Amino acid sequence: MTDVTAARVDAPGSAATARLLAEAASAVDAPDLVLAVSRNGVRTVHTGGSAEPGPVPRELMGYELGSASKPYAGLLLARLVAQGRVRYADRAADLLAPGFPVHPAVRRITLRHLLTHTSGLPGLPADFYPQAVPRWSTDPYGGYPADRVVRAFLRARPRHRPGTRWHYSNFAVSVLGHTLAAATGTPWEVLLHQQVLAPLGLDATRVRPGPEGADAVGHRRDGTPVPALDTGGFTAAGAVRATPLDLLTFLEAHLDGPDPRDPTLSAALADVRRPLLRRGRRHAHTHTLTWFHHPSPYGPVLFHAGATLGQQAFLGFRPDTGLAVAATATRRVHRADTFVATAYGLLTESP
Predict the structure, then answer these.
(1) Cβ distance 34 to 244 under 8 Å?
(2) Tens digit of pLDDT for each residue in 99-145?
(3) Which of 16, 255, 289, 293 sits a CA distance of 20 to 30 A from 315?
(4) Nearest-CA neighbor of 72 among 249, 231, 230?
(5) Backbone angles phi, psi at 107, to 5 degrees
(6) pLDDT digit string (tens) for 27-84?
(7) Is the dihedral of CA 136, 205, 264, 286 positive or negative?
(8) How far is CA 111 from the centre of its chain?
(9) Angstrom distances, CA of residue 229 to CA of 111, 140, 256, 317, 318
(10) Whole-angstrom Cα distance, residue 150 to residue 127?
């Protein structure tokens, strides 16, 4: 690809990190690419891509996070628990529709089950696909609004008993968002801003497209631009948009020590870092409340990736060494894609 690169080095000694990022960027083919690293608060940002840079620097543009939005939902739940407003063991149906008749398995689904993909719900509701398939490459979610997500949950028949199996589910995390909104009497977008975005100073993070020219444009594999993502009723599972610099701020908050000025936020940040469950063959895969949790030569790494119709994102941090990695790209994922592997390598392969 033709690489147009601008590396910002924020402190002496990070020149080596800048070289590492430039080398990593050469492995990723995308119109716009940002690789951002924070080492104990010292930031290095590399931008590049096959497209000509626009008037807004790439690191200041908003990118669609897709499923990398879920750590924000997890931190929100953890903070509401720390405040005593809900409990992890609260049953979602009781909060969302008190007294409504549901299947016994649905009645047993808790907030923890929804967030940790152990609810027994499928990845998406069964009736999602007929309306989504005709517009799969342009707008699969926009025609499935919030009330339909809630109705699908209340009439669901989970595949497995809650808490017994791990199955990744955008459906479940979306239901969590609607449940928290119902439990607090606050719209999800407002709740997320009040409890997570504003306290962390994430002024360039939102759940809707920004002003014209403020957001990165996604692309199909062939380079064709795609419209901004409309998540419909699946907001909590994938609607967050953020600049790479805001992504670093979010990750750095997970690496900081307790803040006596905001004990419930500190408690929530500690809670989402704690290993919670194991899955897979020989229970080899470990998860926290909201992050994938892997070993590395330099201590555990916590991460989450996401993709939309034309963009990708990766968030990760290494608590033992103060390392955080945020990466964004504006090309749809494909089988031979190197984006996630490259970002993951930055997180796990360097001291």
Answers:
(1) yes
(2) 999 999 999 999 999 999 999 999 999 999 999 999 998 999 999 99
(3) 16
(4) 249
(5) -60, -30
(6) 999 999 999 999 999 999 999 999 999 999 999 999 999 999 999 999 999 999 999 9
(7) positive
(8) 18
(9) 26, 9, 32, 26, 30
(10) 13
Cβ 279 vs Cβ 304: under 8 Å: no
Cα 297 → chain centroid: 25
| Tokens, residue 66 | 């897709």
In this model, does residue 222 exceed pLDDT 50?
A: yes
44 exposure class (CB count in 10 Å sphere: 0-12, 13-18, 19+)? buried
Q: Which of 179, 215, 197, 293 is nearest to 54 (CA)?
A: 215
Cβ(235)–Cβ(174) below 8 Å: yes
Single out the residue of 145, 230, 144, 146 nearest to residue 182, CA to CA: 146
SS (HEC) of the chain? CCCCCEEEECCCCCHHHHHHHHHHHCCCCCCCEEEEEEECCEEEEEEECCCCCCCCCHHHCEEECHHHHHHHHHHHHHHHHHCCCCCCCCEHHHHHCCCCCCCHHHHCCEHHHHHCCCCCCCCCCCCHHHHHHHHCCCCCCCCCCHHHHHHHHHCCCCCCCCCCCCCCCHHHHHHHHHHHHHHHCCCHHHHHHHHHHCCCCCCCEECCCCCCCCECCCECCCCCECCCCCCCCCHHHHCCEECHHHHHHHHHHHHCCCCCCCHHHHHHHHHHHCCCEEECHHHCEEECCCCEEECCCCCCEEEEEEECCCCEEEEEEECCCCEEEEEEECCCCCCCCCHHHHHHHHHHCCC
Q: Are 263 and 275 in contact (CB under 8 A)?
A: no
What pTM value is reported for the model? 0.95
